[in-house]
Amino acid sequence: MATRKEEERNEKIIRGLMKLPPNRKCINCNSLGPQYVCTNFWTFVCMTCSGIHREFTHRVKSVSMAKFTSQEVDSLQNAGNQRAREIYLKNWDFQRQRLPDSSNVDKIREFIRHVYVDRRYAATKSSDKPPRDMQAIYSCIFICLCTAIFFKLIFA
Prior knowledge:
Blueprint: H1 4-18, E1 36-38, E2 43-45, H2 47-55, E3 60-62, H3 70-77, H4 80-88, H5 105-117, H6 134-155
Antiparallel strand pairs: 1-2, 1-3
Helix pairs in contact: 1-3, 2-5
């Protein structure tokens, strides 16, 4: 568990990241002042888009209500809306195509499906992937090792 000082440091970093020009608007609908982070893609999103991301079982955290681990903060520092645009909207023509309006939930849902689920506009290089949450990876490895040890003890 993070110390109070570490939590404050993480919050300060996230608040700073929110002030960067690419992160001042929701990546999906351009609403000002997004207050959520979609940790699947390490993007800043508005309340409307956060709900739609959750419909697709994407993990979303509130900047003001949730605690972020140091690993999550590191991932967010290495990503953010600009990096996500380079990956997921690489082939999106911003001159000819407009992001959905924040008031049109159906268009936002369709956009999120096309961009993040279908990856219709994504870059094709395997190096264009968002940073992973290392804590989640370590947890999975730990569970697998514990399971293997358990079965070895039971069936040995």
